[in-house]
Amino acid sequence: MNDYDSGRIADLLNAEMGYERTDVLEEADLVVVNTCSIREKAQEKTFSDLGRIREVKKTRPGMLIAVGGCVASQEGENVIRRAPCVDVVFGPQTLHRLPDMLRARVETGRPQVDVSFPEIEKFDHLPAPKAHGAAAFVSIMEGCSKYCSYCVVPYTRGEEISRPMVDVLMEVAQLADQGVREVTLLGQNVNAYRGKMPDGSIADFALLLDYVSEIDGIERIHPREFSQRIIDAYGRLPKLVNHVHLPVQAGSDRVLAAMKRGYTAAEYVEITRKLRELRPDISIATDFIVGFPGETAEDFEDTMKLVEKVGFDASFSFIYSPRPGTPAARLPDDTPYDVKLARLQRLQATIDANATRISESMLGTEQRVLVLGPARKGEGFLMARTDNNRIVNFEGPLSLVDTMVRVKVTDVYPHSLGGQLLD
Ligand code: 5AD
Ligand code: SF4
User: At 127, phi and psi to the nearest 5?
Assistant: First the structure.
């Protein structure tokens, strides 16, 4: 989501104020720091980054610094108190106001702060999307109203708001016209999509998938997070990629209840079982929080059992980080950090081993892949993505970039595959 927002901020600043993107801090007239507060480490990175940027600003009078994202949303004016070099503080829902805030900063000589939640306004004030290659993100909803007990998102991004369905379809169609073949539908919880239709009725995520599938040119759709209602769509829509990201967080029902996740481990396993009935080789990725307050050794064994049952392909797993203002931050937590770290490492090693097994089973198979660009290292090599979300590198001409081709998998590496071009 932040990656998408950063792209939209760059497009907006270019369209409205003529700023061009640079990766060289020392050349910048304006530095935009798009922040994350999901865990404490991410939050603290904001302030260490600002320390570094402040040193550069000292040598470049007139340089402006804007801080956006969830740290800005949560801290508001405190950002400027802690880092007085900052000129503008904007939230995830006010990024479209950034040009006005920058102008006001220069005109008034005073720092500007706006981290309010003006509902859907943000989407209406952004320039039309520009495609950069054949894969694109499309935001369909924002915010979250689930209030899991450990999570800051409902407080920083606000309650769930969905974009009207026609707006989403228009954006996907515009991207398809510019050569986009693969769209990732974004939202904190896309399964909560409830988009207004022109006749006033409400479309859910499954219906949106049906419509997006009908758009010519689009060949692959990545939903992020979903529930049982979407399972049928996997049987019906071949354009849905053979990969789902379905965050489970933990395998102990006691912990899941304390997290306020609203499902049991068995219910989660049941969804993955039904998915595998329709798509036997579907790749299932997830998120885990290890060491939630009160997680016992036995609770963690339940997590490991769930890992065995589902056969995850990848995970984003982290040690629990207490976030100010969330209910879980007040829970007693007496598990030593070393114990949590050992649990995390065991979990990750098991999932990595499983991912390698799945990759090895792909050896010798033919895959239809989307060519994303030249490979990072190696002249004449291309980088592409398989239908089950793996990166494969193979020799081929640059003219194939942004097209779909067939490759044979010839090598398995820890985080990628090697292949041979068949077309
Ligand atoms: N501590 C650790 N991980 C967290 N996540 C969300 N909040 C926290 C927290 N307080 C993780 C969850 C979620 C992912 C986006 O971030 O696993 O799915
Ligand atoms: Fe956070 Fe839970 Fe909402 Fe996900 S569903 S964003 S973990 S509150």
Answer: -65, 160
- Count other Cβ atoms within 10 Å, centred on residue 205: 26
Ligand 1 pocket: which of 3, 36, 37, 39 to mutate (most atoms within 8 A of CB)? 39
Six-digit token string for 296: 């016992």
| pLDDT averaged over 10-residue windows placed end to end, the chain, 423 residues | 90 94 94 95 93 95 95 95 96 92 96 85 72 90 92 92 94 94 90 93 93 83 63 90 93 97 92 93 95 98 97 96 95 97 98 95 96 88 94 96 96 94 90
Q: Round to whole Å and give the CA distance between 296 and 279.
A: 35
Query: How high is the pLDDT of residue 130?
Result: 80
For residue 328, give the ligand nearest its CA. Answer: 1
Handedness of CA 263, 267, 272, 274 (dihedral sign): negative
- Ligand 2 within 6 A of CB of 94: no
- Catalogue the long-range contacts made by 206-211 (C-beta closer than 8 Å, 24 or more residues apart): 206/230, 206/232, 206/233, 207/165, 208/140, 208/165, 208/168, 209/233, 209/237, 209/240, 210/236, 210/237, 211/165, 211/169
Distance CA 221, CA 243 (A): 10
What are the start-end ranges of the E strands in 70-140?
A: 88-90, 112-114, 135-139
Bridge partners, 395 (sequence order): 381
Amino acid at 218: I
DSSP per-residue codes, 356-377: HHHHHHTTT-EEEEEEEEE-SS
